[in-house]
C-alpha cells in the first residue's frame, strides 16, 4: 500500500494481444446390450469409446515449454519460424528451441478412453428390487480455460515480467518503471531485456475420468410410495491441475528468496497444465417417493457423503483449496471444495380436494367453486451443511505454499464457541494460534509455516423453504386462467456468507492466540446477495 501511495511499482506484467484460435475435436461411439438372464435377473452391458484431441491452435501459433528437457517446442506449421524476443538466448541460455518437430497439438492424443458400463437388476420378490451399477465416464469436451493458454507463450505472444531487481532495496525505483505509476508501461516494453513467462503442458496429459459405482435396494410401499436406500461411490483420476514445476520448496527462514530455491532460477514461474489430480467419494442416499394419488405427490431424499480431492474446479476456482507443499500436490488431498456432508431435499405438490369434480364439494355452485375450488399448494425444502473453508495464517517466516495457523493441542478448529455459533463468532477462534517465530522453535521448523490442514472448517449451511399456491379458474372449455402466489425463502432464513478466515484480522495475545470478541477473525459480516425472502404474484392465461 505504501508503494502504491508513493507511486512506486514493485512489479508488472503485460502481454501482447495477438489473436488465438483455439480448437479441439471429439468423437464418441457407444453400444449396449440388455440380457434377461432369468425372469428375475436382468443384466445391461455397454461400452463407450471417446477420442478427444488436445487443444489445437488453428494456425499453429502456440508453444509448449517441456520442463523435463528444458525445451521450447514450437510446432510445425506456417508460423514455426516466428521470431523470439531479441534477448531470449541471453535470458535463457539453458533452453533449447525446437521448431517444426511436434504437431500443432503439442502433445500426443489420449487414445485409450474406453468406458465400460454394467448394470444388474435382480427382483428379490414382487415388491423389492436390488440394483448394482458400475461405469467409467471421461471428461474431454470441457474447456481448460484461458489460464494458461498455450497461445500466450513466446514467440506468438510475449508476456514480459517487469520485476524489481533482486539486488535492489524494497524502496528503490523499479528499473522498468522509472516514472512510477503515472508514466505507465515503457513504450518499448516488448523489446526490453525482461524475462518472459512460459506455458508448460505435461507430456503425459490425459483426459479426466471418474469410476462410479452404486448398490441400491428399492422397495414398494403402500399408497403408491417407494423407498430406496443406496451406497454410492466414485474415484476421480487425471483431474486437471495447474502446477508450477519450477516452484521453490517450503523453507523457513527470514532471509530466504524463492527465486534462489527454484530448480531453474532463470526460468521463473511456469504456468502449467497437468492431469495428476485425483479424488474419492463415498455416500449413503435414501429416497422416499410418492407418485400422484389423491392429488398428492412428494419426493424426499437425504444424502450423507464425503468427497475428497487434491484438485479443485480450475475454471470457477475453489475457495480455500491450496497447495501445502508446492513440490508435492498430494499434500493438498483433503475434503473437496464441493463437499456437502449432509444434504436433505424434498418437494411436495398437493391438489386440494375441494371444488367441482373433486372429492369434496363436487356439487357446489359456481360462485363458491370460484373461491374455494381448484387450489394447489407446492413446496420445496432444502437443508444442507456448508462447504469447507480453510483458515489462513499470518506472519509465516520463509517460503511456504500456504501460510497456515498453528493448531493448538487437543483443540478442534471446527468446534463451536462456548456460547454456540453466532455471526459474531462462527467457530472457536481460540483453537488456533499464530505460527511461532523461528527463535522459539526447537525440533519442528515446519511450524514456522503452521500445521493446520486445509479445508478444516465449514461455512454456514442452508435452510430454505420455497412455497407457492396456485388457483385455477376455468373460463370456458378453451380458456383458463391461473393465479400464482410464490414465496422464495418463505421464512426469510438468513443465508450467511462465510466467516472471516484470515488470522491477520484477529487481535492476538502475547502467545499468538486470538482474543475472543476482538477483531473480525471468525466473524460473519453479511448474507448472500439475493437469498432474502422474495414474494411474487402472477396471473397466467391458457388458451
Describe what is shown at a glance.
This protein has 543 residues and is mostly beta strands.
Describe the structure.
With 543 residues, this protein is mainly beta. 4% of the residues lie in helices and 38% in strands. It contains five helices and 28 strands. The strands form seven sheets. It has a 15-stranded mixed β-sheet that branches. It has a three-stranded mixed β-sheet with strand order 5-6-7, with no helix packed on it. A hairpin with a 5-residue loop joins strand 26 and strand 27. The radius of gyration is 30 Å and the shape is globular. The termini are far apart. The mean pLDDT is 88.
Descriptive keywords:
15-stranded mixed sheet; mainly beta; 28 strands; 543 residues; 4% helix
Architecture blueprint of SSEs:
Elements (H helix, E strand, L loop, with lengths): L1 H5 L15 E2 L2 E11 L4 E12 L3 E2 L6 E3 L4 E4 L13 H4 L4 E4 L14 E12 L2 E12 L40 H4 L14 E4 L6 E14 L3 E17 L9 E2 L5 H4 L8 E24 L2 E14 L24 E2 L6 E10 L14 H7 L2 E10 L3 E2 L8 E2 L6 E2 L24 E2 L23 E2 L3 E13 L5 E9 L17 E3 L5 E6 L14 E9 L1
Parallel strand pairs: 6-7, 10-14
Antiparallel strand pairs: 1-4, 2-3, 3-8, 5-6, 8-9, 9-11, 11-12, 12-14, 13-20, 14-15, 15-16, 15-17, 17-18, 18-24, 19-23, 21-22, 24-25, 25-28, 26-27
